[in-house]
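Assess this today:

___
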Amino acid sequence: MFFKLKPSAGQPLYLQLMQQIQHAIENGALQDGDQLPGIRTLAEELLVSPNTVAKAYSELEHAGVLDLRHGSGAFISVSRRARLLADRVRAAEMRVRNLIEELREAGLLDDEIRRLFEARLAGQSETVRIS
């Protein structure tokens, strides 16, 4: 599989795994019906406790993202709500990609674009100074 956990990230490993699975669903890498590795298999691959993977899977099942079938494994089970969210995320990603391309064509550097986005996300209403 393609998940990578960072113990030094300051975030619980099960949350990292949950976010990576959700991101894989949002960007289409994982789709409805896809099977994830078993708990022990993924734990060995990621070098974490099986409890870490079990907790992530359980939380994702509770959120309606996974269907845990005893003896069969974990399957992506994207609800209608989750599909709509994934579609919105993909559409937003395309809009961001297009905007970044436009800003680059206008002569802004990636660092300047990043500062603009970060300032807006942080809620700063004043004009960002570009050096």
About this structure: The chain has two domains: 7-78, 86-121.
